[in-house]
Amino acid sequence: MKVEALEYGDKRVYTVASFNKGVGAWLSRLPTVWVEGEVTELRRQAAWQSVFLTLKDPDGGASVGVTMPRSKFDALRLELKDGERVHVFGRPELFEQRGDFRLRALSIERFGIGEHLAALERLKQKLAAEGIFAAERKRPLPRLPRRIGLVTGNDAAAKRDVVTSVTARFPAAQVLVAEVYVQGPRAPAAIIDALRRLCQQPELDVIVLARGGGSFEDLLPFSDERLVRAVATCPVPVVSAVGHEQDTPLCDLAADARASTPTAAAKLVVPDLRDLVERLDRQRAALARGARRGLERHSQRVIVLVERLRRAPALAVERKAARLERQAGRLRALSPRATLDRGYAIVRKREAIVRAAREVEPGDRVEVEVAEGAFGARVE
């Protein structure tokens, strides 16, 4: 629609509505563009048809209002928060009723750290769903590793910290160092290759993956999906010591153990020799005390056994004598003599015992034995 001006003599005057309409028509002819800025004043309500935010230039402070249909905004699933930096694709427009200039967004994308954070969060959820970070997958570290692998950067402070701490704690430890790229796009492949080569070394019991602190972008290789999977499937237990305490790259979650610093990693992989010697001394003293107590117990037992052996013959004789006396008592009770003592007598006829009266006849001579002595008699 053509915007007509009012004629006031030699002046052409536009009403506010006409002016806004003309500017709006002109703006509508501009192409769609990408605009970069920081999200502020994000406003979204379920009852609103549109989402409103302000896009601010973090350097100069300039800002522009942005509006986007709520259905499109929700479909992006960005979960934006104030302070995040984004790229907004849209077209400039003027809200004619109020003369508000704004950018009507067609799409929004994170960029920089915000984009990487979102991508890392998606990768983290994916790997967690596969069980890559599960606690039951973690393997115990060896108590006394025969050889220790160290993957770190060339001439890095992390390498010095790990090697110095390991040798100070346990001088006999053997450390195999693999120096690789630990920053930039070539780092993940280089670290994976170093892990593979170290695992081929004989008697290698544990690997330390170490890098000192750095920016978020510097530590991104240690969240690379290929490296995270390589750490999780490494045949040798891996200790991740990347960045500082507040840094948590994804390889920290996939490793068998995490150390807040490279120095702390040394404490995880080797014991302190002084503590180990002190513990051995305590255990040796405990064994000596146990041996002495055991010897004392056995000595007391030997003494008791010797006393028993010394007394055994006499006890045996006593037991045998008592048994013999019991048997003698039984024999005495069964002996004919005991019967004679009670007033009975034994009658013999020619050495045969007379048990019935019919066995003798009048005039037969018999021998009569009583308790004390014997005498002859003749049957009448």
Q: How is the secondary structure organized here?
A:
Blueprint: E1 6-8, E2 11-13, H1 16-28, E3 33-43, E4 50-56, E5 63-69, H2 70-76, E6 85-95, E7 100-110, H3 113-129, E8 147-153, H4 157-169, E9 175-180, H5 187-199, E10 204-211, H6 225-232, E11 238-242, H7 250-254, E12 257-258, H8 262-269, H9 273-334, H10 336-341, E13 346-349, E14 352-353, E15 365-369, E16 374-378
Parallel strand pairs: 5-7, 8-9, 8-10, 10-11, 11-12
Antiparallel strand pairs: 1-2, 3-4, 3-6, 4-5, 6-7, 13-14, 13-15, 15-16
Helix pairs in contact: 4-8, 5-6
Radius of gyration of CA atoms, rounded to a whole number? 54 Å
CATH architecture of the largest domain: 3-Layer(aba) Sandwich
- Order of helices and strands, N to C? EEHEEEHEEHEHEHEHEHEHHHEEEE
Counted beta strands? 16
- Classify the beta-strand content into a percent band: 25-35%
* Mass-distribution shape: elongated
CATH topology of the largest domain: Rossmann fold
Mean pLDDT: 87
Helix count equals 10
What class would the helix/strand composition place it in? alpha/beta
Q: What is the number of domains?
A: 3
Overview of this protein structure:
The protein is of the alpha/beta class and 380 residues long. 40% of the residues lie in helices and 26% in strands. It has three domains: 6-111, Nucleic acid-binding proteins (OB fold (Dihydrolipoamide Acetyltransferase, E2P), Beta Barrel); 117-271, Succinyl-CoA synthetase domains (Rossmann fold), CATH 3.40.50.261; 337-378, no CATH class. The chain is built from ten helices and 16 strands. The strands form four sheets. Strands 3-4-5-7-6 form a five-stranded mixed barrel. A five-stranded parallel β-sheet has the order 9-8-10-11-12, sandwiched between helices. It has a four-stranded antiparallel β-sheet with strand order 14-13-15-16, with no helix packed on it. Strand 10, helix 6 (225-232) and strand 11 (238-242) form a beta-alpha-beta unit. Helix 5 (187-199) packs parallel to helix 6 (225-232). It is elongated, with a radius of gyration of 54 Å.
